[in-house]
Amino acid sequence: MTDTTSGTLRLPPRIHVGEGARAQLPLLLAEFGRRVFAIVDPFVATTPAFAGIRHAIEAEGAQLTVATEVLPELPVASLDALAERARAAHPDVILAIGGGSALDAAKVVALLAAHGGPLSRYYGENLVPGPVTPLVAVPTTAGTGSEATPVAVVTDPDRELKVGVSSPYLVPAAAIVDAELTLGAPAGVTAASGIDALVHLAESYTAAPLGAHWDAALPVFTGRNVFSDVIALDAAGRIGRWLPVAVAEPDHREARRHLAYASLVGGMSFGATGTHLSHALQYPIGALTHTAHGVGTGLLLPYVLDAVRVDADAAARIAELGRALGSTATSEAARIDDAVALTAELGQRIGLPPSLAALGLDAAELPRVAELGMASARLVSMSPLRADAELLLEILHRAHAGTLTKRSTR
C-alpha cells in the first residue's frame, strides 16, 4: 500500500504572491547586502516595470549591476561569461527577473559564483557541494515555476540533449510572484508556459511512489508526495479555466493572477516530486524540432495520461485530475476519459499544434526519440506505469498521428 502521509518539501524561505508584490524587493534585497547582481531577460529590461524596480532598488542604496545576456536554451558558454561578470561584481545577492531561462541562468550563475566551474562538474543530482550565492527570483511568465524549484536546465554542445543541475542548494532564497509583471505577454508565450505548468502539476500528481529511505541521502526528486497531493489539483483547475482567457486577452488581470499562482504551485509540486514521460520525450523532440518546451510537453500530456491509466493508482489520480478540470462524470473510467479529452481540448483552444507531425517531426525519427527518452532514466523512473521503449514508442506514434483513439493492448 502506498504511504499517503510522507513527503519532502523544499521551498524558498520566503514567497510573496500578489499584484504589486515586487514592491517588497528593495527591503528584501537589502537583507542580503548592498551589492546586487541582476540577471534580467533582455526584453523585460526595456520595460517601464523594470525601470520602476531598478529605481526603487537603487533608491534604497543598493549597488546594482544589470546583465541582460540571457540566450535562448542557455548555452553553457554564455553562462560561463555571465558568471565571470558576477564574480567581478562580488555580489551579496543575485536578482533574477524574467522567464524560466533568466531564472535558470541565475541559478547557474549563483552556483558558479560560489563554487567555480566547470559547470559539468555539477550535472545530475546532489553534486553541488554547498550553499550558493543567495538568489531572489522574480518570474515574468507563468509556466516553469523555477522560482520554487531545485533545478536548472542548460544546453551543452558536448551533449545530445539538454542537461540539468539538480540540488536543494539551487532553491532560491526568496521568490516574488507578481502577476502584473506577466500582463501583456504574447499569446504564444502564455500558451506554452501555461500548459507546461499544467504538465508539471499533472505529472507530479501522478508520479510513481519511490519510497523514502530516511537512513540515506535523499534524491532531489522523491516521487509521489503528500504535499503535491494537497496542492496540485486546485492549481490544475485554475489553469484549465483561466489559460484560454489569458491567451485570448493578454491584459486580463484575474486570469493572470490565477496563472501566476498556479505556475508557482506547479514548481512547488514537481520541485520535490518530479515529472515523468511528457518531459522525457520532449527533450529529444525539442532538440529535433526546435520548438518551445511547453508546446511539446503540452501536446504529449493527453497521450501520456491515456497510456499510464492502466495502472490502478494512476487511474484514480487521473480521474481526480479530470474532476479538477471540470468533469462531472459519475464513474472513474468516464472521469479518466474526460481528463484525457479535456487536456487535449485545452491544447487546441490555446493553439498548440495538433500532432507531432505538425511540429515537423518525421515519423522515421520516432524510434530514436523513444531511445533518447529512455535515456532520461530519472524521468522514466517517475512514470506510474513501468515504462519501456515500446510504451514510449506507442505514445509517440499516437501523438504523431494526433489520434486519441483506443490504445492497443500491450
UniProtKB/TrEMBL annotation:
SUPFAM superfamilies the UniProt entry points to: Dehydroquinate synthase-like
Superkingdom of the source species: Bacteria
Residue ranges of domain Alcohol dehydrogenase iron-type/glycerol dehydrogenase GldA in the record: 12-178
Keywords: NAD, Oxidoreductase
InterPro entries named among the record's database cross-references: ADH_Fe/GldA, ADH_Fe_C, ADH_Fe_CS, Alcohol_dehydrogenase_Fe
Family of this protein: Belongs to the iron-containing alcohol dehydrogenase family.
Name of the protein in question: Alcohol dehydrogenase
Species of provenance: Homoserinibacter gongjuensis
Species lineage: Bacteria, Bacillati, Actinomycetota, Actinomycetes, Micrococcales
